[in-house]
Amino acid sequence: MNGLMRVLLVEDDDLIGCGVEAGLRQAGFTVDWTRDGHKAGLALDTTVYALVVLDLGLPRVSGMELLKRVRDSGKDVPVLVLTARGTVADRVGGLEAGADDYLGKPFDLTELIARCRALLRRAQGRSVEQIRYLDLTVNPAAQTVDVGTRRVPLTSREWAILLQLLTNQGIPQSRSRLEESLYGWQEEIESNAIEVHVSNLRKKLGAKLIKTVRNIGYVVEKA
């Protein structure tokens, strides 16, 4: 799955948006936050996202209209709808328009994060949180990596690259695609950052784990 940990947050309420953005970042996601449906549509046209967290009551283009456009275009990105419209009819309408899950306001941030992770697992065809690869055991929720019985600490950047590669086994990931999984709109991309992080991962997890694909990028071969 491309753009594994990159989330598009579409929410026009500054207080709610700030809280959700901070919570998602703390949970290990890269977050792009836009406050209206038109800009969100442009973002979806130009960036690969793992998940969209979408408010329905948006200016310019409503959340429901944006959701319909996304599905009509053939995009299968998981969408979690957030809204103050809590009636059964509203929930049914959102789900029938293509939402994958629905959370009414006010909501608990820990539940939002848990639902986001569940949607990602479903999109990846996993029913459990852990990812196993050879002697690695990776837990996205806890953000832990074990090599055999040894816990290996990773930085947030190393973590994002490892997840991107593990969930795209056998598919080379370009430098630009890896950068997309690391950096939000407001973050400056560090020079040679991908190479440095890959080098550190090899030192921590084994030199043979990540292969270099000449003139393309990096890959973790299928187990």
TrEMBL record:
Domain OmpR/PhoB-type residues, every copy: 128-222
Occurrences of domain Response regulatory (ranges): 6-120
Presence of keyword Signal: no
Keyword GTP-binding in annotation: no
Protein localization: Cytoplasm
Molecular functions (GO terms): phosphorelay response regulator activity; transcription cis-regulatory region binding
Residue range(s) of DNA binding per entry: 128-222
Residue numbers of 4-aspartylphosphate PTMs: D55
Top-level division of the source organism's lineage: Bacteria
Keywords: Cytoplasm, DNA-binding, Phosphoprotein, Transcription, Transcription regulation, Two-component regulatory system
Name of the protein described by the UniProt record: QseB, two component transcriptional regulator, winged helix family
Origin species: Paraburkholderia xenovorans (strain LB400)
